[in-house]
């Protein structure tokens, strides 16, 4: 039964609400239900657990999906959606289809591998096996539902709903989505604009983001809503990267770059190629240790005529210094090398993939350099390293951090605060409400404050996970979902119990190892045992937080 009893559309926020992952928005009308994006949650274990739970809607009731771009936090749950009954079209750009054709099977492969390893450990511990979120055959089945939509072309996506794409300047094929919705009691369609992810100025491979003006409702990302980057030209960015590369070379150790496999890797390759070609940094092997990045690079090369600086990208991808690794054996062999070399591996937030192997092999080396090349979500290993952790746990093992850790965020695919404000103001007048999403608390509050000077603050809303709003011609009205939230708002984009447990295990190990003698170590262990036994003895009250 249709939950929307009125004639006005209802907008539901199923992800990227006070966080930067899991993008998924639902539009429901009396005649149709569609999703804009259906992304994977990343970050803390509590947030990632949402990927395994039930969707907050029946998948078979969704008529269509409109996909803004291929990044996994926007597309990564599409195979699960299909696996659980969705059979409608997935509308997106041609380049996004090409990228998803390698990214979604890769995501399934990573899940299968990680679950296989986990199940081996579970069998040893007497725990039941678990299933991956979806398998590669689900990703393949999902790809048959994709339908290409050109920029600027109106297309009917469901009864009474039309969509048009605008170039978002964020990623190859990325789009902002303009929706027109026929509403029974209105003479003109309601217009809603979903920003998707908005690209910054000076983006290496893209033109500036575009979009329409005068919409009724705007859903705008806020990733960097609280900060302005320095106004850096491509040449200045390349020069600053050169400083990092020369410093790593002078240390005679590897430069390890956790990087998003799609586009960030290709941008880095262009700049490293130009720096080495000009003799501004030492010539050295550059290993792209990501099968996904290898396949994505082929797609970028195929679309080189459609992007800015495509000719230089082609040259970089055929560079004599570049080595693409495929097998696990080739990946492991990299860390047997000595001296200076560059490794670019996914994932960009260090939460999965081959980068964890390279970090485990190199974090303890004083001559190693780790350069984060993009946003690190709260709770991710990348964020923990940037926040100054002296020890971390990787694949169940403790690793001391002696390598130099830095953030080089000038390749970000996201507009900064000033650019977001400029993009949003170019969409005015927004007749009703601006919803700020896809940002942690600081980004949301920062962008809200900046926009408040140009539009009424009571028309700027920062929705929480699973919030819903009825969209009327006179403003939006909150809708009671009548269901418990899948995750409490205060648990989103925060360190969780798993992060705390890892920290505790590291602290206990350090305390025991630094004890003066056997007697001191035994005393620490006795105190820990008493603390663990205390709840059963009623020694202290349960923590309800």
List the helices and strands and how they pair.
Layout: E1 10-13, E2 25-28, E3 33-36, H1 45-48, E4 64-66, H2 72-75, H3 78-83, E5 90-92, H4 94-125, H5 136-143, E6 146-148, E7 155-158, E8 161-167, E9 175-181, E10 190-194, E11 217-221, H6 234-250, E12 255-258, H7 264-277, E13 286-288, H8 291-302, H9 310-317, E14 322-324, H10 328-334, E15 342-345, H11 355-362, E16 369-372, H12 381-386, E17 391-394, E18 397-400, E19 404-407, H13 417-425, E20 433-437, H14 441-451, E21 460-461, E22 468-472, E23 475-479, H15 497-514, H16 518-537
Parallel strand pairs: 3-4, 4-5, 5-6, 10-11, 11-20, 12-15, 12-16, 13-14, 13-15, 16-19, 20-21
Antiparallel strand pairs: 1-2, 1-22, 2-3, 7-8, 8-9, 9-10, 17-18, 22-23
| Helix/strand class | alpha/beta
Residues in β-strands, percent: 15-25%
- Cα(first) to Cα(last) distance is 37 Å
The side-by-side strand order for the widest beta sheet comes to: 6-5-4-3-2-1-22-23
**For the CA atoms, what is the radius of gyration?**
24 Å
The count of β-strands is: 23
Mean pLDDT over all positions: 90
Question: Which shape, going by the Cα principal axes?
Answer: globular
**Biggest beta-sheet profile:** 8 strands, mixed
Low-confidence stretches: 1-5, 537-545
User: How many separate helices?
Assistant: 16
């Amino acid at each position: 039964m249709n939950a929307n009893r009125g004639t006005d559309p209802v907008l539901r926020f199923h992800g990227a609400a006070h966080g930067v992952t899991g993008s998924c928005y639902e539009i429901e009308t009396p005649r149709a239900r569609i999703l804009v994006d259906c992304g994977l949650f990343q970050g803390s274990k509590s947030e990632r657990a949402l990927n395994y739970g039930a969707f907050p809607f029946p998948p078979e009731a969704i008529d269509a999906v409109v996909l803004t771009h291929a990044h996994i936090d926007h597309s990564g749950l599409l195979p699960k959606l299909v696996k659980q009954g969705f059979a409608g079209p997935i509308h997106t750009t041609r380049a996004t289809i090409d990228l998803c054709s390698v990214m979604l099977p890769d995501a399934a492969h990573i899940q299968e591998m990680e679950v296989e390893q986990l199940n081996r450990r579970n069998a040893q511990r007497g725990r039941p096996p678990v299933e991956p979120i979806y398998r590669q055959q689900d990703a393949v089945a999902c790809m048959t539902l994709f339908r290409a939509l050109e920029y600027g072309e109106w297309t009917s996506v469901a009864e009474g709903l039309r969509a048009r794409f605008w170039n978002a300047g964020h990623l190859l094929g990325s789009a902002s989505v303009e929706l027109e919705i026929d509403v029974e009691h209105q003479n003109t369609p309601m217009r809603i604009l979903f920003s998707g992810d908005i690209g910054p100025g000076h983006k290496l491979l893209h033109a500036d983001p575009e979009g329409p003006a005068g919409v009724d409702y705007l859903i705008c990302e806020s990733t960097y809503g609280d900060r302005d980057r320095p106004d850096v030209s491509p040449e200045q960015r390349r020069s600053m990267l050169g400083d990092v590369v020369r410093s790593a070379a002078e240390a005679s150790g590897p430069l390890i770059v956790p990087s998003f496999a799609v586009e960030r890797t290709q941008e880095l390759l262009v700049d490293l190629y130009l720096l080495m070609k000009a003799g501004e940094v030492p010539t050295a092997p550059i290993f792209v240790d990501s099968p996904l990045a290898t396949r994505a690079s082929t797609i970028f090369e195929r679309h080189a005529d459609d992007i800015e600086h495509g000719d230089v990208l082609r040259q970089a991808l055929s560079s004599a210094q570049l080595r693409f690794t495929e097998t696990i054996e080739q990946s492991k062999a990299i860390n047997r090398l000595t001296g200076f070399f560059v490794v670019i591996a996914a994932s960009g937030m260090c939460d999965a993939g081959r980068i964890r192997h390279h970090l485990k092999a190199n974090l303890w080396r004083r001559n190693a350099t780790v350069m984060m090349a993009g946003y690190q979500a709260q709770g991710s290993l990348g964020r923990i390293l940037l926040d100054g952790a002296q020890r971390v746990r990787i694949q169940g093992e403790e690793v001391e951090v002696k390598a130099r850790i830095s953030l080089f965020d000038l390749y970000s695919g996201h507009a900064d605060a000033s650019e977001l404000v400029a993009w949003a103001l170019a969409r005015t007048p927004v007749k009703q409400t601006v919803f700020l999403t896809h940002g942690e608390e600081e980004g949301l509050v920062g962008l809200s404050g900046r926009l408040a000077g140009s539009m009424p603050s009571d028309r700027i809303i920062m929705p929480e996970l699973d919030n819903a709003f009825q969209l009327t011609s006179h403003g939006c009205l909150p809708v009671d979902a009548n269901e418990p939230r899948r995750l409490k708002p205060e648990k989103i984009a925060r360190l969780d119990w798993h992060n705390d447990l890892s920290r505790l295990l590291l602290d206990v190990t350090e305390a025991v190892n630094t004890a003066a003698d056997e007697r001191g170590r035994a005393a620490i262990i006795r105190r820990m045992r008493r603390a663990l036994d205390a709840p059963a003895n009623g020694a202290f009250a349960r923590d309800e937080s």
